[in-house]
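Please go through the protein record below and explain what the tokens say about the fold. Record follows.
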Amino acid sequence: MSFEIVPPEAEEHLDWIALTDALAAGHSLPKAEIGDTFLYRDPDTLLSRAAWIDGLGMAVKTATIFPGNAAQGKPNVGGAVSVFSDVDGGVEAILDFSLVTKWKTAGDSLLAARRLARPESEVILLVGAGTVARSLREAYAAVWPGARFMVWSRSPDSAMSLAGMFDRTEAVRDLEPAVAEADIIACATMATDPILKGGWLRPGQHVDLIGAYRPDMREADDAVLQRGCVFVDSFDTTLEHIGELKTPLATGAITRDDVVADFYDLATFTRAPEDITVFKNGGGAHLDLMTSRYILAAWQAR
């Protein structure tokens, strides 16, 4: 049996808009079966996230987290994504872990933004200046190539470093006025307490929430969700698992009916001109599978 090894160099064959089209197409297939497995050897972790979509096949994304590696000059996180045939279960490909993660995460947000953000958006604010923010800068520019970008971070040096990598991009020190100016606000931080306030928002904006992934994490306060029309990528990976929604649902700040739709109902991803739209990017192995299939096809067609 032979299978493809898809390296990081496959990135030069990828396109952000084509990826979002592939993600949309993937959600027209039967709903994914997903499952996560965690194994621990203190302080190290092995995480496997699996998905099976009838008609698309299977993927298992495995991550190793070894916190002690930094002291040896090695990456803390490693891994790979294995893709299996839907027909006979055979291994079809092994893909670079970081490549799939980057394109899945930013592509997830971009799919929502293409439907929820105003097409004439001119100013995009990145809240956070890490690896995900950098990929968001690339992804959003594919749809809004003439937009001006701002970057805010708790670390001004990090914001300046990211801004220096791109044209039409500036670091800002004050978050509130930057939020007021932006047409799109994309948050990609490790915040556990809200840093984005609903009182800062104005009609017509789109808010993209990426950073929170645990039950104790939130980037936006209750007012953001109360003022906005709320959408998610997957009900299954967000409502009961991530503090961004789990906490306000538990306290009654919002109700389940306030969460309009997920990607399995993309036709509902619409906006009125004065709406504030809010999207929670929760990820999930089904998105890893869809992204891996897109990357594999692009690599094979090179």
Remarks:
- The first strand starts at residue 4 and ends at 6.
- The mean pLDDT is 96.
